[in-house]
């Protein structure tokens, strides 16, 4: 896999770690895959603080997906840039029409650990191309973009979001993103550098992700206090400083959108 694909091991490690510690995410599949893959993370990418953050971010996305599934029982779920993530298992989405989408090299890896069903499909495709949507027939879509927007240029993001809004009548979308400051700093020091990624892109305002037919709804907290409280007491202050303080809030954002 190329360097961008290898970034999937960073959140995988985080989810496996917090699951093993029985914190805010129960993810036995991540534990299993991490034990078998054994990808050698180094530097900041192997930090327990980043692992907590990755697990926490995943749990926030999970909570949102569960709410959307309950509110939109007929919607299909699209997980773009799915990596080796087991969200469909964590949110009990096995009876819903669900599509996990990632680049071919990633899906090849994913097929070692997941099986398709009548409802669940894996799509090997580049989300920057529109053709992968042609086989999905639905009126409503719940779209998860976790850890992917920062690898897309502004033009690529616009193309993707426009394609989603044109293909579905109704779209509910949750995406995390770097700020432009975070993107600049990433060229100097970022855990993803440890797997060879040096080029990422940022967003400073939610309006930068709106396209015709897509409305910004709200910004979400990626590090809820209720989850921070589950960390060992001696570690909570350090985590807040690294990933939940004012500096972190200037670097990382979580935006929700819906079609209009």
What are the SSEs and their pairings?
Blueprint: H1 3-6, H2 9-20, H3 28-37, H4 48-71, E1 76-80, H5 87-90, E2 98-102, H6 104-110, E3 120-124, E4 140-145, H7 154-167, E5 170-178, H8 180-186, E6 214-219, H9 225-228, H10 233-244, H11 246-251, E7 252-259
Parallel strand pairs: 1-2, 1-4, 2-3, 4-5
Antiparallel strand pairs: 5-7, 6-7
Helix pairs in contact: 2-3, 2-4, 4-10
- Summed up, the domain count is 1
Mean pLDDT: 91
The CATH topology name reads Rossmann fold
Secondary-structure element string: HHHHEHEHEEHEHEHHHE
Helical fraction: 40-55%
CATH architecture assignment: 3-Layer(aba) Sandwich
- The top-level CATH class is Alpha Beta
Query: Structural class, please?
Result: alpha/beta
Major sheet: order of its strands?
A: 3-2-1-4-5-7-6
Query: How many strands in all?
Result: 7
Please describe the biggest sheet, giving its number of strands, its sense, and whether it closes into a barrel.
7 strands, mixed
- Residue windows where pLDDT falls under 50 for at least 5 positions: none
Number of helices: 11
Q: Radius of gyration from the CA trace?
A: 17 Å
The CATH superfamily name is Vaccinia Virus protein VP39
Q: Strand fraction band? A: 15-25%
Instruction: Tell me, briefly, the overall form.
Output: globular
What distance lies between the first and last C-alpha atoms, to the nearest angstrom?
A: 38 Å
Task: Explain what this protein looks like in three dimensions.
The chain has 260 residues and is of the alpha/beta class. The protein has one domain (57-259): Rossmann fold. Helix content is 40%, strand content 17%. It has a seven-stranded mixed beta sheet. Helix 2 packs across helix 4 and helix 4 crosses helix 10 (233-244). The longest helix is centred in the N-terminal third of the chain and has 24 residues, at 48-71. The termini are far apart. The model has no long low-confidence stretch (mean pLDDT 91).
